[in-house]
UniProtKB/TrEMBL annotation:
PROSITE patterns: ABC_TRANSPORTER_2. The keyword Transferase does not apply. This is YbbL ABC transporter ATP-binding protein. Residues 13-216 form the ABC transporter domain. Keywords: ATP-binding, Cell inner membrane, Cell membrane, Membrane, Nucleotide-binding. InterPro entries: AAA+_ATPase, ABC_transporter-like_ATP-bd, P-loop_NTPase.
Amino acid sequence: MPHLASADALPSMRDADASLGINGLEGAGRGPFSLTVAPGSCVILSGASGAGKSLLLRMIADLDPNRGQVRLGQSPRESMSGPAWRRQVIYVAAESGWWGDDVLEHMTDVPAAQALLARLRLPADILGAPVSRLSTGERQRLALIRALVRRPRFLLLDEPTSALDAETTLAVEALLHDCKAQGLGLLIVSHNPAQAARLQDRHYRLGAAGLEAVPA
Ligand SMILES: Nc1ncnc2c1ncn2[C@@H]1O[C@H](COP(=O)(O)OP(=O)(O)OP(=O)(O)O)[C@@H](O)[C@H]1O
């Protein structure tokens, strides 16, 4: 893993065969949606603005009202508390929310977060900065770091590079690629066909008729 600043900075692989299974998930008048994300794989979700992509991710994380089956391997989502579920399956919004003005207090593993800064082209002292002074792109990358250092099994990423320049976008993608190689499962909303082509193991488009597989 030559590109990693620290092997400890990435989620470790556990229960390698535990897929994220979504079956008949519906809510807010949308769905039912069914798809599977295997560990160590990347599923891209595209579709027109307003199609319901964020809603689907939020329903999987159980952040919006929904019904249907969601499982992690053999374990149904309802077998664990909401916070326990969202430690394993983390939703990262396109515009991240921060509950205080101190970046550091949001990081559950500061050394691991520190080890990822350079990879994402962030300054070494940024963890000491107030959230209110960060640029949109800095906040977006720090939200990804904040999620990664919690060592989830699946990440639901909503347009994770929407605020980034081309070179920084590639740096984020390289990190995600390495996380995937360590067993992390990814479901990523992207409007960028080139990014989809670089990252996807599978690709679905969300349209009026529901999820449609997009050929590679
Ligand atoms: N909790 C909710 N209950 C009912 N409707 C909702 C809820 N959340 C979002 N919506 C509506 O569902 C629609 C889809 O929103 P969503 O944010 O999922 O779209 P999107 O596909 O992610 O769009 P974009 O690409 O522009 O981000 C919108 O019209 C939105 O107002």
